[in-house]
Amino acid sequence: MIYKASELEDLINEAVKAISMDGSPSNLYNPIHYILSLGGKRLRPLLTLMSANLYKEDMSQVMPVALGVEIFHNFSLLHDDLMDRADRRRGKLTVHKKWNDNVAILSGDAMQIVAYQFIAKAPKDVLSNVLNLFSSTAIEVCEGQQYDMDFENRLDVTEAEYLEMVRLKTAVLIACSLKLGAIVVDAPEDDANLLYDFGIKMGLAYQIKDDLLDVYGNSHVFGKNIGGDILCNKKTFLLINALERANPAQKEQLVKWINAVDYDPEQKINVVKNIYDELNLKQISAKAIERYYLEGLDYLSKVQVSDERKKELITISETLTYREK
To answer: Are 150 and 83 within 8 A, CB to CB?
Structure first.
């Protein structure tokens, strides 16, 4: 049986709802329940199940690992939102806004531990490989976040440095999700590695698209305030390329707004966006997204299962590439 993505999403949502977060003290567990209940794409656990489904129909041994990946991802969001001082996540208040900073830190710490508890439910014969991959990915995500913070005070971040940061902060967890599914069902090692490489390319495309939507998306669809990256001077694909491609007058304007302390947020967003428009960065970003999408499909094409079994992965890759949220 080849599951449709929507069928696997239903299984994941049911499994997430069944996770008990009724412990005490409530201020530790309620935020965990809150962030998990906000939904989202459930992309990473979905990829874990879809990868496993390339080879097997029974999802029972894979689901705990998929849930561990989802819990870990949401843990990273709690801390990421706190460090970015973000107000909204998936259209709702972020945990540090709904509660406070300390709650977001401690609940996030607890979520990471719970994630490992789920990962440790992998079958014993593959548990070592699962834990090694997951642990190396977890530290890489932290490395990526540190690079992201290091970039905050730099105006000379290169596109290559940005891509390495994105690979670590975003892409490795997507790649890990795919490879974990393959490992749990004992897929061929070459296939597991190809699925990992497919995930890396998908992750790069995914993050550049996220950067693009932050400027050009619809806030009601996107679930976050448009222009948030501009306001916090985040070194996105667009800003890095703008600083590199700008003429002297444009660069002077960009640096002025980056260094500004007191400003009208709407005006800053409009000025920076206009420079992006002048530099054709929307189209340049779209081309980069499509390039990584096609490179990812090339890796997926080499996985030794029938094209019929790959259809759902191809569809979700396309959906993410051309998504509006």
So the answer is: no
Residue 171 is given by DSSP the state I
Would the pTM of this model clear 0.90, i.e. be above it?
yes
Count the neighbouring beta carbons within 10 Å of the beta carbon of residue 119: 24
Q: Which residue has the tokens 């656990």?
A: 45
Q: Answer yes or no: is pLDDT of 75 > 70.
A: yes
CA 68 to chain centre: 15
Closest alpha carbon to 153 in 222, 235, 84, 57: 235
Query: Residue 132 has which token pair?
Result: 């090694």
How far apart CA 320 and CA 44 sit, in angstroms, is 12
3-class SS string, 112-137: HHHHHHHHCCCCHHHHHHHHHHHHHH
| Dihedral (Cα; 121, 125, 128, 130), 10-degree rounding | -60
User: pLDDT, tens digit, for every residue of 184-204?
Assistant: 999 999 999 999 999 999 999
Q: How many domains does the chain have?
A: 1
As a whole number, mean pLDDT of residues 228-238 equals 94
Encode pLDDT of 118-169 as tens digits: 999 999 999 999 999 999 999 999 999 999 999 999 999 999 999 999 999 9
- Tell me which residue range forms the domain holding 44: 5-321
CATH number of 72's domain: 1.10.600.10
